[in-house]
Amino acid sequence: MIRLHDIQKSFPQADGRLYVLRRISLDVAAGDFVTIMGPSGAGKSTLLAVLGMLDGDWTGEYRLLEHAVHKMKHKDRIALGKQYVGFVFQQYHLIDDLTVAENLAMPLSYRDVKPDDREAAVADTLDRFGIVAKKNLYPRQLSGGQQQLVAVARAVIHRPALLLADEPTGNLHSSQGKDIMGLFRELNAVGTTIVQVTHSEDNAKYGKRVVQLRDGWIVS
Amino acid sequence: MDTVLHDIRYALRTFANRPGFTSLAILTLALGIGPTTAVYSVVEGVLLRPLPYRDAGRVVRVGWTFEQYYESGRFGASPTGAEVRAWSEQNHSFEDVSPYWGDSPVLTGLGDATRLSAYTVKSNLFRMLGVQPILGRGFTDEEDRPGSTPAAVLSYRFWVARFGRDPQVLGRSITLDGTAVQIVGVMPVTFLFPVLPPEFRSEGTDLWRSMGAIPAAFDPAGNAELVGRLRPGVTLARAKADLDAVERAWSKSIGERRPRVTVPTTIRDMAVGEVRRPLLLALAAVGLVLLIACANVANLLLARAVARERETAIRAALGATRIRIIRQVLTEAMLLALAGAAVGVLLAAWGVPLLVSLASTSLPRLHNVGINLQVLATTVGAALLTGLLFGLVPALQSMRGISTVALKEGGAGVGTGTVHARAGGAFVITQMALTLMLLVGAGLLGRSFVKLMTLEPGFDPEHALVAQVHLPPERYGTTAQKLAFAQVVIDRVGALPGVTAAALSTGTPLAVGAIGTILVPDQPEQSEAPWGSITAATPDFFRALAIPLRRGRLFVPGDGGAARPVIVNDALVNTFFPGQDPIGRHVAFYGGRIGTIIGVVGNTREISLSATPPPVIYEPLVDDAQSFLKVIVRTAGDPAALAAPLRASLRTLDPGLPVDALQPMRQMMAESVATQRFYATLVAIFAGLALLLAAAGLYALISYGVVRRTHELGVRIALGADTGQVLRLVVGRGAVLALLGIVLGAGGAIATTRVLKSFLFEITATDPVTFVGAALGLVVVALIASYLPARRATRVDPIVALRTE
Predict the structure, then answer these.
(1) Share of residues in chain B with pLDDT > 70 (%)
(2) pLDDT tens profile B274-295
(3) B725: Cβ–Cβ under 8 A, 6 or more apart, which residues?
(4) Looking at beta carbons, which residues of chain A come within 8 Å of B415?
(5) Which residue spans within chain A are E strands per DSSP?
(6) How far is CA B632 from CA A97, B147, B465, B615, B619, in A?
(7) Which of the 8 DSSP states describes residue B801?
């Protein structure tokens, strides 16, 4: 599903360039659940941004479902990301002024899903994630775990082939974290490819394999 | 006190640390306070400053009018000498009255012959007004008697201009209309008499003459004027009732059939009554600009208050009371207001002379206008008030920082800072609404002005030059002398290179000669006889002004005399001979003079560009040669270039002949709409300023929103929002605010533009084109103001969403 070859990302510095990703080559098969680990500053989130088309300033080759991302224009990359990728953030990043249902509907509205279909998808997702009762609440009225649950629901509502998660349980206590990771496992079981970034060994165990990054290099 | 000083010190340090914010706030306030101060200085000088008379509220001028015209009339016509005498002797309302007579004597012996603005007055006038000469004396009772030695008191302006403030001027003689007049006094610089309505565009009186030497002052049938001082406690209405009783008896005694009433008017109303409303409207308009500026600064302070919530929470945690925290914000607001006022006053100091020159032909008493202590005090007071106004909401917002909510904001969610967004949005909506009201006002006045300037005046103002000559009675006493002069002028001026036609007349369009009642002898007398303009002219008058002939013929040399041929305009035909051939019919004017119509010409704007053309009768100059004559010249090229040769030519004919009002017809037209131009320009400037401030306000709000929502925007982009969707999100908010403002503003404009009704020409106060145009203009500006920050929003890097805050 994902094929990275020689991906490099760097920033100019006074005494040369600062490399945050170095010669990254990585294959992720459809249905895989990959955990990226490494110390702070290793380049984990940057790699996730590259995978999710949020960062287009890199060199190398990147193929997603046989689309040659490295040859695409910015606009096409964005469109590709929109079609196949969903995101879960450490900070949940729900929109304060939108209700749970409206937060869920947001990615669909960005994909020009018709209002009726959007409504149906939101209802289905609320049901699937067991948060129907929360649909009219605002994020500030939810606990951290509930907020992240909504964030995961929002990430998968458009049924992305690839789910990217950046420290998805970083702000949660352990039992909430377990719930979320269990949810990831379920999503993976029904075919969603997942790439997560985490510091947690426990969370890594939910995945099928671990990629270690250090100073921008894949070390294992 | 110590804590107040501490607040001030802290505020000043805060300003110094944020020079961008501080200068933006001060500049914004200055743009509101500066124009307001400038307009207020005009209001103060023109409307509020007391007239230079003792207890001016009791000084009243009295005129008369027919009862049926009383409601629509203004100051009333001048009475006759006999009428003045009746009013003076039989009233019970005035403690003192003083008659006066206007005149335009020709001054000779001091450079070029010049026509002066002079008034013949009774000796009690200066005492009654409570003003004494600064040099010499006023008139004595002896000088009121017929045959006494002529004496003159000079105006300060005339004394300075003609005698260079020479104190030795007393006792000197000047020659007025060929008669030696002794200078006996000089009045103070502030003295002004009589006070004329602004439309007279009087530059003030040059001198006052004693009545004893002026025979006209003793002519019971001649025109006179009357000014008086009401007894203490007597109201204007009571004085009118008293004078009306006298007038009824008097008009009965002269056999007047139509009921007449008196029109007493306070001198203040004479001077500024007509300009009070438009000036106050201008002040209201600029007040709206100030409000818009206040809303901008309130928004800036609000943004700062939100940004300082954590600081405020910490202060509260350390023991600061709510009052103390609010006071700190208000102190900052007040200091900003005072700094804005200081810069605003500098702007006003620069703007007041501009305003005065713009208003030079539209407003009276402009010599009083300036930034004085009273204006400064009002500005400071208004600035403190505005400081309170724009500081209040941010101060209340700062209270929010005291609560623990502040410590929670900026948690795991991403949002727009709801409280600030709502308050800021409300400010922007208000600004948009006020701006639309100003835009609509400016649009209505502007469109009216354009309509005035582009209307067909009935004559061709291009290539036409007009001058006025006054034939002194001692040399041009007889009709034959006047006509001989007229012929020489036509011959001499007509021969000037570049002149294609030359004519003389007693009036021109926009400077009507005589107004009188017009009747048709063979038609039943109407109860309300139409009035019209009556102009005596030489044959080339119509060619010189390019007034088109509709039917019949124009005058030819030799017309006049017993046959009394007259030419009339379309308006007269439509009034008296609708659907008939008027040629050969008769019209009566000047109370019994009957003319035979030989031609019909097109209508011309006689009174002003905006007034409907009245019926006009043209008669040959030979039948009505007057002392005041207009010389009209049609030129092949630029008429202004012929002004000097024309003046020189007239001077060579008679060096003692004053030539004035020499100007191209186009300039005359421009001057006739000077007042409309003044207010249209003023409101347009304010509307432009309002638009700029409102656009800046919206831009600032949206920009600030984009900055605050950077994270949210990043998340949205990460979740799939494309450029168009982000643009729509950001611009949409600006558009919604603008539209809400437009709806509110349109309502406000509909409710308030009716006050402009009397200033509008051929346009209604709810003109849909203007409303739609103003709204569209505002939408476009709002979209641009929102688009600029929206473009920044589209460039938000979605990676920010992956980063922890």
Answers:
(1) 93
(2) 788 888 999 999 999 999 999 8
(3) A109, A110, B716
(4) 95-97
(5) 2-13, 16-28, 33-37, 59-64, 67-68, 85-88, 162-166, 193-197, 209-214, 217-218
(6) 75, 40, 6, 21, 16
(7) G
Question: Rounded distance, CA B182 to CA B174, Å?
Answer: 7
Q: B10 pLDDT band (50/70/90 cuts)? A: confident
Q: Which domain holds residue A64?
A: 2-218
pLDDT value at residue B404: 44
Neighbouring CB atoms inside 10 A of A170's CB total 18
Average pLDDT of the segment spanning A117-132: 91
Contacts of B718 in chain A (CB under 8 A): 52, 54, 87, 89, 93
| CB spacing of B805 vs A91 below 8 angstroms | yes
In chain A, what is the straight-line distance between the N-terminal and C-terminal CA atoms, in Å? 20
With residue A95 as reference, give the H or E element that holds it: none
Residue B416: pLDDT band with limits 50, 70, 90: very low
Question: Looking at CA atoms only, how far is residue B709 from chain A in angstroms?
Answer: 10
Q: What string of DSSP letters covers B312-323?
A: HHHHHHTT--HH
Say how far residue B415 (Cα) sits from the centre of its chain.
51
User: In whole angstroms, what separates CA A14 from the centre of its chain?
Assistant: 33
- How many CA atoms lie within 13 Å of B103's alpha carbon, on the beta-carbon side? 24
Q: Which residues of A touch B804 (CB under 8 A)?
A: 90-91
Could you report the predicted ipTM of this complex, rounded to two decimals?
Answer: 0.79
Distance CA B483, CA B339 (A): 68
What are the extents of the domains in chain B?
A: 94-230, 418-452+674-805, 476-653
B32, pLDDT greater than 90: yes
Q: Three-class SS string for B621-673?
A: HHHCCCCEEEEEEEECCCHHHHHHHHHHHHHHHCCCCCEEEEEEHHHHHHHHC
* pLDDT tens column, B345-387: 999 999 999 998 888 777 878 888 888 999 999 999 989 998 8
Strand (E) or helix (H) holding B513: none
Q: Nearest-CA distance from B33 to chain A in Å? A: 38
| Structure tokens given for B61 | 């001028």
Residue B743 to residue A26: CA distance in whole angstroms: 58
* In chain A, residues 100-139 whose CB comes closer than 8 Å to chain B: 106-107, 109-111, 139
- Residue A206 vs residues A33, A188, A190, A220: alpha-carbon distances, Å: 8, 10, 15, 18
Total domains, chain A: 1
| Residue A205 CB neighbours (<10 A) | 10
* C-alpha dist (Å) from residue B9 to A40, B2, B17, B20, B334: 44, 10, 12, 19, 13
- Is B412 in contact with A49 (Cβ distance < 8 A)? no
* Interchain proximity B719–A154, CB inside 8 Å: yes
For residue B680, give every residue at least 6 positions away whose Cβ sits within 8 Å of its Cβ, in sequence order, or none: B442, B445, B446, B448, B449
**Is-above-0.90 flag for pTM?**
no
Q: In the predicted model, what is the mean pLDDT of residues B688-704?
A: 90
In this prediction, residue B728 carries a pLDDT of 92
Closest CA to B425 of B517, B240, B298: B298
The whole-angstrom separation of Cα A188 and Cα B678 is: 76
Using one digit for the tens of pLDDT, what is the confidence trace for A22-76? 999 999 999 999 999 999 889 998 999 899 988 888 999 999 998 999 999 988 9
Rounded to whole angstroms, the Cα distance separating B595 from B561 reads: 10
Q: What string of H, E and C letters represents the secondary structure of B93-156?
A: CEEEEEEEEEECCEEECCCCCEECCEEEECCCHHHHHCCCCCEECCCCHHHHCCCCCCEEEECH
In B, what residues contact A, Cβ < 8 A?
408, 411-416, 418, 711-712, 715-722, 725, 797-799, 801-805
**Three-class DSSP category at A160:** coil
Give which of A159, A145, A63 is closest to A111, Cα–Cα: A159
Residue B528, pLDDT score: 62
A144 to chain B, any CB pair closer than 8 A? The answer is: yes
